[in-house]
Design brief:
This protein has 393 residues and is α/β, with parallel strands linked by helices. It folds into 2 domains: 197 residues, Rossmann fold, CATH 3.40.50; 182 residues, Rossmann fold (3-Layer(aba) Sandwich). It is built from 13 helices and 14 strands. The chain has an 8-stranded mixed β-sheet with strand order 3-4-2-1-5-6-7-8, with helices on both faces.
């Protein structure tokens, strides 16, 4: 439930339309943070997204008007057909602000912008590296990158932009108006007293599973710990993006003989996931040094801190600034699973030190890294965009 004390009926009531063709409608940043926080501020919020089914659906969830469109058959259908359907629906819905979350929606919503609608683009990742994605044929990546960057540079001159990371801004000097809205935890969704939850000898992970996010190194570290006589369980919340990634994970678990130590729990809502993580002893965020990870904070890092868990994270300077600066965990070389195993073992064996790290991390989130402060910036940014205008229709 949302805290009704956050509502401020004295403020103007805005109509806000969020649109995403890529993310599930329950995306943590879009639905659980942005949409629900705006509802709590007494705004009228609509979310347009793809359905999990082959049919259109509508519902009101936590005060958010959710409009779901039939699941696309493939990537081309998503980019072209679903994008067009989201645009058509948005065009027919008067709003103060149209907040889009995917670059593939930019060409459609440029039309709304030229019609005088107020469109904001939310950059969830650094788009300069988007053309290096594995699904783009290698021979086409240089040309695709040039065309994509040209489209972004031209289009985003018309849109105010929200950066999900402070580091993205330097890659886009032509953007005229922007704000940084970081993906910090929404403390309303966390257990009231996470430190009171009984702890088990387990490490926790929450988020998308992939080799680049360190899942294979984590599994190898579990085998190292098992060889040392330490049966540390792995509680994993999240899904893989590709079937091939899941096959790699399954084969790795079988070859290492650690199936008895792994609990793969699939997707869970943030509230459900935090309950599982709260019973773990350590939170893991050992992403590999890919360009988009090195300069981006993993949301899970702050979620672990909010739960009072000591964290083990990659030794990137950006991560070290938080983990070592707040003295809330340990940083390791993500390419060396033996370092990860050593760090986990230290925290499991030194519970007093681990608990003190967890307390420092939790205090830091409450004081400096919570979503409440980020939403205040977002709400002011909305208000700045619509000052003196009426909902466009």
């Amino acid at each position: 439930m949302l805290d009704s004390s956050e509502q401020d009926c004295a403020e103007p009531r805005l109509i806000i339309v969020h649109a995403t063709s890529v993310h599930v409608f329950t995306d943590n940043r879009i639905f659980f943070k942005m949409c629900r926080s705006a509802v709590a501020r007494n705004h009228d919020v609509h979310l347009l997204a793809q359905s999990c089914h082959d049919r259109d659906e509508e519902a009101e969830i936590d005060g958010v008007h959710v409009h779901l469109f039939a699941r696309p058959k493939n990537r081309s259908h998503r980019v072209l057909l679903l994008g067009w359907r989201l645009f058509r629906h948005a065009r027919m819905r008067p709003a103060h602000v149209y907040h889009i979350h995917d670059p593939e929606l930019i060409p459609f919503f440029l039309i709304l912008s030229f019609q005088g609608r107020r469109v904001i683009f939310d950059m969830h990742e650094n788009l300069r590296v988007a053309a290096s994605r594995a699904w783009i044929p290698r021979a086409l990546r240089p040309l695709a990158g040039k065309l994509f960057n040209l489209m972004i540079d031209v289009s985003l001159r018309r849109f105010p932009v929200i950066f999900a990371e402070t580091s993205y801004k330097s890659s886009f000097p032509s953007i005229k108006e922007s704000v940084d809205i970081l993906n910090y935890p929404d403390l309303r969704d966390f257990p009231r007293d996470p430190l009171a939850m009984p702890k088990e000898t387990a490490i926790g992970y929450m988020g998308r599973l992939s080799e680049g996010r360190g899942i294979l190194k984590i599994l190898t570290a579990l085998r190292i710990l098992k060889d040392r006589g330490e049966g540390v369980r792995f509680d994993c919340i999240g899904n893989t993006a590709l079937g091939s990634e899941q096959k790699k994970i399954d084969e790795k678990i079988e070859s290492l003989g650690i199936g008895d130590l792994c609990r793969f729990l699939g997707y869970k809502t943030p509230q459900e996931g935090y309950k599982v993580l709260g019973s773990c002893m350590v939170g893991i965020a050992v992403l590999e040094p890919h360009e988009n990870y090195v300069e981006s904070y993993p949301t899970k890092l702050f979620e672990y801190m909010a739960l009072g868990l000591p964290v083990v994270a990659s030794n990137f300077p950006l991560y070290q600034r938080i983990v070592e600066g707040e003295a809330c965990g340990l940083c390791v070389d993500p390419s060396r699973p033996e370092e990860l195993a050593d760090a986990v073992l230290f925290l499991v064996k030194n519970r007093t030190a681990a608990a003190e790290m967890g307390l420092r991390g939790m205090a830091a989130v409450r004081e400096r890294y919570s979503w409440k402060h980020e939403f205040e910036k977002l709400d002011r940014f909305y208000s700045k965009q619509i000052t003196g205008i009426h909902p466009a229709g």
